[in-house]
Amino acid sequence: MQSLTNISLKTIVKKQVKWKAKLYISALSSLVILQIIFGILLSSSGSTSGYGRGNLSVQFSIYSLDMFLIVSAFWAFIVAILFTTKAYRIDDLSVISSRTSSAIANIFVMIIYSFIAVVIMISTFYLKVLEILLVEKQSFIIENLFISPSILLLCFSSICLFGAIGLLLGTSFKGPTLIKVPIIVLLLIFISLVSINLNSLMMLPDLIISVIYLFVSVLCFCLTIWIADKSEVSRK
Amino acid sequence: MNIIQCEDLSKSFGRRNALQHVTCAIDAEKIIGIIGRNGAGKSTILNIIAGYIKPTSGSCKVFNENPFNNIQTAANMIFIDDRLSFSDYLSLEDILKFGADFYPNWQSELAYRMLDYAGLDLTAKHQQLSKGQLATFNLVYGLVSRCALTILDEPMNGMDEAIRTDFYRAILKEYLAFPRTILITSHHLQEMESILEEILLIDKGSIIAHAPLDEFKEQLISLSGPSDALADLLSETEVYAQTIVAGMTSAIVDTSKLFVSEDLLRSKGITLSHLTASEVCKYLTSKEGSDIDAIFD
Amino acid sequence: MKATFFLFFMPLLLVAAIFLLLSKLSKKIKIWTPKRIMIGITGYLVLGLTAFLYISFFAESKIQVLSPFEMKQLEKKLEQIQKYDLENDSSYLTEDYKKKTWELKYEGDTLPVIVNGDDSGSNYIIRMRYKDNIDSGKAIVTYYQLPVILDGIDLSDKVPLPNVYMAHNELFIESLSEQQVNYDRIKPTLSILDFNREVEQEPYAMDYSYSNVLIIDIPRSTVLEDSQGLVQYIR
Questions:
Q1: Helix, strand or coil for residue A81?
Q2: CB neighbour burial string for B235-270, b if at least 16 within 10 angstroms, e if fewer
Q3: Does residue A1 lie within any of the structural domains?
Q4: What pTM was computed for the model?
Q5: Is residue A3 part of a domain?
Q6: Longest dimension (CA), chain C
Q7: Residues of A numbered 87-126 whose beta carbons fall under 8 angstroms of chain C's beta carbons: which are they?
Q8: C36 touches A115 (CB < 8 A)
């Protein structure tokens, strides 16, 4: 009798990540297009704040990273859900894989893409600034050209968090029924909790917020793997 | 060690019972035909063996392990059906590289030769292939991966006759070069008979028969002769089907339940004829007394 | 609560809609292979980097944003200057802040002062001083501009000066109508966070409303007629 091949989960996950990072790249190209649409073409005025002092009235048009981060976060959420849809799942069955290995690979791809998303976000921001300098005629004020690392980390963790929630939601939809309902209920509770405490959350320093986001992301990832381990799949 | 061991396996989807108390064992490297009518439960049992779905009750062991979500089982198993899909970005050549990266026993050279023989353009995309070309490619993919357990779910669907014959030979030759357990389901049993070693017959979620091919064929026998001569013989034994035309009866009976010698039968004017495996399958799975002609009469 | 909920879902739906559009389009455009997409994205990032380099080397913003440290120093300085008001001593108003000087001639010994202010309120204080070295019939009006910091930017240059002139032997001081200034401000942070934090914590912006000072220097022989009661004496 033939001897059986023994392959570790780590090897398979590595191979899956390598191929998935390449094959899912249309997600990143759609992020670039989204950033260009929302960041550069649409928000041409930035947000404004005005002051009045005596007979001097000042209008500031502020161009900051907000819009880019929001677009990237929503992109991560949608892309994560897409990764768990049937078409992508059954593609995984064509090679050596299990639901667990595919889930872990998706998580790593999500993390890698979040990192690249931050870099794309920064590029779009600078392109936008360039556009303002060349196009707008009014005087500009550059507060600081360098983005601080704590802001970058915060952006990365926000995008990662939205991706993690998307993966968890998508995976639990395909999971066993007993798990589907509690997870969705849990997520709804979580979202309502966050929206209530949002103000107090924003008071904390950047680094703490990042750590909280990363912690919740890791939690979501673990839950995703646990649910994937119990999920069935069918080509039909 | 049994390669596949199912004990009292049951699977239900909601209220529909796809499999009921299935017990079987496959103990060596063979080419086994999994035969059954549409909706008999073939795909279900294959999906359980492949580790894609969990049984509702009972156990299934592949290579002595539970196959569900098991990476070790997945490393030694490949499931080929017409829904095998790959990313839009991969051409056939890229898919071969993809497979080669994962499967340790992958035969690249052989794959190229087979696809060249079949006349497939390697720069085409998987989604662009015609039904027959798709079946050919999928089968090649399954064979060159050289997995210890190869499951082919209706692999010849859509292939033209000439290429079907070629690929039956290809399966056999590959099997001889690298022995492995091959489970094939097909609706064309007569074509496949030449390469099968065993047959597993499933009907309505249960295993009707599981035997080597020759044994299987011997299960039923056809008797034909004068109706009056056959009448009392038939009353003593289980009849699967019978037709009466102008005083002559043809009946299909269970061989094991026939306790008369061939000479005695011949003296009564009754002739025995053997059935093909597909005929045996047909009679074993058809409803007692049902006949398509009856609907139109 | 409902508003934020709505605000949250609108962009999400928009992003999802554009995504669907993109996926439908991409089915037709099959020229993109993963390799080309990777090159495209890398090109985009290089473009962003080039933009950054261009901005950092070539873009010059004449306006400087004050750091909190600088602002604290300025605050101390201004406190010092404000002593002019507390101690009624004009020596605190140094040459640095002198913005404009008007020399006006008038007849006689009395100088009526009429201040026409805008409804928005004039943001300067008027003081009068007796100077010995001025000839009679002459008045020197000096306007001192104190720093006006709004959101970290010194806007003293943009404050419109009052209009000072003599008419019918009366000194008119008029403040001009509102002037609007627009700026584009590039801030590489998350303004949601900044906005919320600003409200709670110490404001980054120093919005001190130190009024500017207008000093009228007249010889001792002249009497200033201040019918509106806006002019005070200073040493």
A1: helix
A2: eebebbbbeeeeeebbbbbeeeebeeeeeebeeeeb
A3: no
A4: 0.86
A5: no
A6: 93
A7: 116, 119-120, 122-126
A8: no
A129 in C contact zone (CB under 8 Å):
yes
Look at B29 and A87 and tell me if their CB atoms are within 8 Å.
no
Give the long-range contacts of residues B36-42, CB within 8 A, separation 24 or more: B36/B185, B36/B201, B36/B202, B36/B203, B36/B285, B37/B203, B37/B285, B40/B202, B40/B203, B40/B204, B40/B205, B40/B285, B41/B11, B41/B202, B41/B204, B41/B205, B41/B206, B42/B153, B42/B185, B42/B202
pLDDT in tens, B230-279: 777 777 777 888 888 888 888 888 888 777 777 777 788 888 888 888 88
Looking at the structure, tell me whether residues C101 and C124 fall in a common domain: yes
Query: Do C77 and C9 share a domain, yes or no?
Result: no
Q: Number of structural domains, chain A?
A: 1
Instruction: Please indicate, yes or no, whether residues C101 and C178 belong to a single structural domain of this protein.
Output: yes
Same domain, C120 and C180: yes
Domain span holding position C11: 2-58
C57 half-sphere exposure, CB direction, 13 A CA radius: 6
Rounded distance, CA A127 to CA A120, Å?
10
Closest by CA to C186, choosing from A153, A57, A133, is A133
Asked if the structure places residue A4 within a domain, the reply is no
C171: which 2 tokens? 């000194």
Whether residue C63 is contained in a domain is answered as no
Q: DSSP 3-state assignment of B280?
A: helix
CA B35/CA B201 separation, integer angstroms: 5
Type and span of the H or E element at C145? none
For residues C208 and C99, membership in a common domain is answered with: yes
Domain that holds residue A90: 9-235
Question: CB atoms < 10 A from the CB of A126, how many?
Answer: 23
Q: Are residues C223 and C125 in the same domain?
A: yes
Q: Which of C16, C39, C58 is the last residue of a domain?
A: C58
Domain boundary (C58, C88, C104) is at: C58
Q: Which residue of A has its CA nearest to C54?
A: A130
Percent of chain B with pLDDT over 70: 98
Q: How far is CA C207 from CA A52, B58, B162, C158, in A?
A: 10, 77, 89, 15
Please give the DSSP secondary-structure letter assigned to residue A39. I
Best of A74, A169, A210 to disrupt the C interface (most C CBs within 10 Å) is A74
Measured distance between the N- and C-terminal CA atoms of chain A, rounded to whole angstroms: 33
Instruction: Please tell me whether residues C72 and C45 are part of one structural domain.
Output: no
Helix ranges (H only) for A84-176 are 86-92, 99-135, 149-173
H helices present in B80-152, as ranges: 92-102, 108-118, 131-144
CB contact under 8 A, A62 and C185: yes
Of the candidates B54, B81, B102, the beta carbon closest to that of A96 is on B102
Per the structure, the count of domains in chain C is 2
A143-197 pLDDT, tens digit each:
778 888 999 999 999 999 999 999 999 998 887 777 778 888 888 888 888 787 7
- Residue A8 and residue B39: Cα distance in Å, rounded? 36
Please check whether residue C16 lies inside any domain of the structure: yes
**Residue B124 burial by Cβ neighbours in a 10 Å radius (0-12, 13-18, 19+):** middle
**Record: contact C37-A144, CB cut-off 8 A:** no
Asked if residue C152 belongs to a domain, the reply is yes
* ipTM score for this prediction: 0.88
Task: Single out the residue of C128, C126, C122, C215 nearest to residue C160, CA to CA.
Answer: C122
In this structure, is residue A48 part of a structural domain? yes
Q: Which residues of A touch B86 (CB under 8 A)?
A: 91, 94
Q: Assess whether C53 and C117 both reside in one domain.
A: no
